[in-house]
Structure formats: structure tokens, C-alpha cells
Amino acid sequence: MSDLNLKLRALVQHAYANAPAFKEIMDGVGLTPADIQGLDDLPKIPITSKDKLVQMQQAHPPFGGWLAVPINRLQRIYVSPGPLYDPQGFEDTDGAQSAVQALQAADFQAGDIALNTFLYHMVPAGLWLDEALRLIGVTVVPLGPGNTDLLIMVMQSLKPTAYVGTPSFLETIYARAAQMGITPTFTKAFFSAEPYLPAQRQKFEGQYKLRTAQAYGTADLGLIGFEREGRAGFYLPDTLIVEIADPETGQVLPDGQVGEVVVTTFNRAYPLIRFGTGDLSVAERDADGVRFLRALVGRSGEALKVRGMFLHPNQLRLIGNAFPEIDGIAVTVQRGDGDKLYVQVMPAEGQQIGDSIAFTARFGEVFRQLARLRADQIELVPHGALKSGERSLKEVK
């Protein structure tokens, strides 16, 4: 039996014994740990979707029955959009190791100085990548997002060779630096959390002569796939089991077919086994026989990713609960050169919104707090313009 099969058996036994949610899933379909002897048996276990995980955490806070170690064995607890609580155990090193593989594939190496512009609080991206960069020997400047002028000042002083963050923020940095007559010192960039558009790649690699790479991941699982120079698609770290499955049946699909990206993580503190990301992709093999994911082709669930953050209809319901005077919320995500988020709000029947400016400001702040996203436009629409009780979320391109 392969080492991976042995590792999976041990994980299933541990999760069944210590994570009540996983035991309930297994018992619900008549499975015991003895039924999972290796990778071939993994599809017997039902997929747990991201939306289902949110529901489980709401029903059994804070971890929905998935925590498989005592809470004092956690080094960090993140809070991601949903809201979702993402625990990280002291023994969990796979997240950083996955990122190490991705960064090394992007030519990050000892001696580089990297500006890390991902958030360092609440969500895991900043700290995960910080740890991975340091394991490689990269000097990290932990800046986080925003405050472009300060970043440029730091860049002038430290002459960083590498950028870590979203492509849209790097565009902002280059645009502001040009206004100030400053040339950035970056030679390479590593992107995640939002789509890396072809026009952006052409600009960064063609005009600015950067070596760039992007990675695909989620807050719950960490990094799932990463680019390798000269090759298309997302290659998979050896710290995860990644399946492409039929979103309805849960059965694994052969290479070349579109299905949901389903991930099993060997995180003993938070053993998400067959976690459905909601992302649709296709698995293929390159000329060397190495498996990779073609570019993500869509979403299978209700959640949408906006500026690198998932936005769920559940969050719209929470926002609506804070405003008894409204009866409808409709959110449209406009894809393009940076996501734009437009919100329509409908008052309840017979309700009058006196000061619309004050209301939209208050609504915008609650939206930002609960959705962890800023709305680009909030529009009050008359009663009847939306369905009563509507909490809709859609994207347009």
C-alpha cells in the first residue's frame, strides 16, 4: 500500500474519532473508517460544500463539529467571509509547504526582498505566505494592502526584488509610481486572491519585464494550485488530494471533463475531507505525465469570489437582518479590469428612507463589515423593483 493511502487511512480514522461532523457524515451513509482503505475509496465519502460548512458552523459554532484537536492546540483562528472560522493547529505545516512549492516554482529564492501586500489579520494569506517566504530565505517586508504612497516610499528605501499580492494592487503601484517619476525595483511577482487577466500579464511581463506567476487557493484549504514557468494551468502541491468530481453525484470524473474541485487536506486539527470548493475546472496531464488543473471555468455553488474574497448569499441575509426597514437586496458583480460591486436596496412596503445619503453610508459600512468588501455603488430602488425578501447575487462580464 502506498504511503499516501496509509496517510489517508490514518487521517480518516483520526477525523472519525475526533471530529463529530465527519463522523455524522460517515454514519449517515453507512461508512466506517474500515471502508476507506485508500484513494480508490475516497469518493464513497460525500462532498461537503463551502455553503454547507457555513451552515454547519452556524448550527454548531464556532467550528461546525470539524475541530479534531482541543482548542488550546490551535496556534491561530482565522475568520473568513461567510463568516467561517478557520483553525490552524500547531502541527499544521502543510499550508506553508504548499506555498513554498509555489513560490519556488515562481523563482523566489534566498536573497530576494519581497513586499508582502496580503492581509496579516483575520484571513490566513498574509501569514501563510510570510512563513513560506522565510522558509525559502526571502527577506519579507510585511506591508499588507493599501497606502500606496507609503509602499512606494518603502520600495525606494529597501529596493525590493519581489512583489506578493493581487495583480490589481500592483497595477495601482506602478501607476502611482509613474506619477511620482519613480521606477519600481521588482523583477518578479506572485499573485493570488483574484483573477490574473491576460492584459495584466501582457503589461507586467511585456512592458515591465517581470517574471510573474499566480496561485489558486482558498482560506479554508490554503494554496491548491500554482503556475510553473512556460506551462499552462495550475500544478498541484503534494500536500493535498485534489479530485475533479461531479458536483451532483460526488463521483470522480476522468481527466478532460469539467467538474468541481474537491480537496482533502491532511490538517489533523481541521480535517476537511472531500471539501467542495465550488470552483469548476478540468484536470489534465502535461507531456511529462504530471497532473494539473486547467484554468478555473466557473462556480458550482451560490458563492462568488470578489476581489479575492468569497461573497455568499448568507452574508446578504445577515446584512438584511441589520436593517428591518428594507425588504430586498440585489448584488451584481461586474467582472473586468478589477471587480466592481453594485448593490440595490429596496425599502419594505410602507417604509420611507428619510435621509438617503445617511442611510446608504450606514448600509455601506455594515456591508463592508459583514461582507468584508466595499460596495462601489449603493442604489436605493422603489418598493416593487425587487422581489420581497430578495437576497440575490449575480455576476456579469
From TrEMBL:
Pfam families: AMP-binding (PF00501). InterPro entries: AMP-dep_synth/lig_dom (IPR000873), ANL_N_sf (IPR042099). Residues 135-264 form the AMP-dependent synthetase/ligase domain. PANTHER family: BLR5969 PROTEIN. This is AMP-dependent synthetase/ligase domain-containing protein. It comes from Candidatus Thermofonsia Clade 1 bacterium.
